[in-house]
Write a structure and sequence with these properties.
Blueprint (H helix, E strand, L loop, with lengths): L7 H22 L3 E7 L5 H12 L5 E7 L4 H7 L5 E5 L8 H8 L9 E5 L16 E7 L6 H4 L1 H5 L3 E5 L14 H8 L4 E4 L8 H12 L1
Parallel strand pairs: 1-4, 1-5, 2-3, 2-4, 5-6, 6-7
Helix pairs in contact: 1-4
Length: 217
């Protein structure tokens, strides 16, 4: 009898994509934009989100969906800014998926929201495989991580609409080649923008805020 191969991974991703399309349709009906932020642990996702909330909270309504393997530390930080923050704990899973996001959206008042941030689980591998229904994907790479990460984890950079190089305030202390890094990204993803920033000093954040403004138009 011939062996039959079943592609479980393909079926999972196909079902996830259908859910993601459904999420985008719901968001579009409510004129709400969703941005998925991905990076390694400690690259600065939460810091970027808090800086962005402080910049825009008086001109638009924002909510955040926090993804972590465990704890609600980041969601608690966001809640202190008086914006809705929903926590998803994956219990060991290395990424969020569209089904998790769709369930979380039931707790959001989309009618009165302009922008939703997803802070994905800290991971450069499997987070890139799952469409979450976001309108834009942001990847953060911090200076201490090194400029070779796009070679090691190309898929996540291929999925990015913008790559933020964070912690440029410590650039003098690390061998990160900022001159050639954009060329590496453009080689993988010609349409991705590359933006050096520091969430600590604020350098480059005005350009990031301008990018957000264009998303909200």
């Amino acid at each position: 009898m011939d062996a039959k191969t079943i592609s479980v991974n393909k079926d999972i991703l196909s079902a996830n994509s259908k859910t993601a399309d459904r999420i985008r349709a719901v968001l579009d009906r409510h004129h709400c934009r969703m941005i998925n932020i991905m990076s390694s642990p400690g690259s600065g996702k939460t810091s970027l989100i808090t800086k962005t909330i402080n910049r825009f909270k008086h001109t638009c309504s924002i909510a955040v969906i926090e993804g972590d393997i465990a704890s609600s530390i980041d969601a608690e930080k966001i809640s202190l800014l008086n914006v809705p923050a929903l926590q998803i704990n994956t219990g060991g899973g290395c990424h969020l998926d569209a089904n998790m996001i769709e369930k979380s959206m039931n707790d959001l008042d989309l009618e009165h929201l302009d922008l939703v941030f997803i802070e994905n689980v800290g991971n450069l591998v499997c987070t890139a495989d799952f469409d979450l229904g976001a309108h834009k994907n942001v990847v953060i790479l911090s200076i201490p991580e090194g400029d070779d990460k796009p070679y090691k984890y190309p898929v996540i950079f291929m999925e990015a609409d913008i790559v933020l190089v964070n912690k440029i305030d410590v650039h003098p202390y690390f061998d990160f080649d900022m001159g050639t890094f954009p060329e590496i990204i453009y080689g993988l993803n010609p349409s991705a923008a590359v933006l050096p920033v520091s969430t600590k000093s604020g350098e480059g954040l005005d350009d990031w805020f301008s990018w957000i403004n264009k998303i909200l138009e």
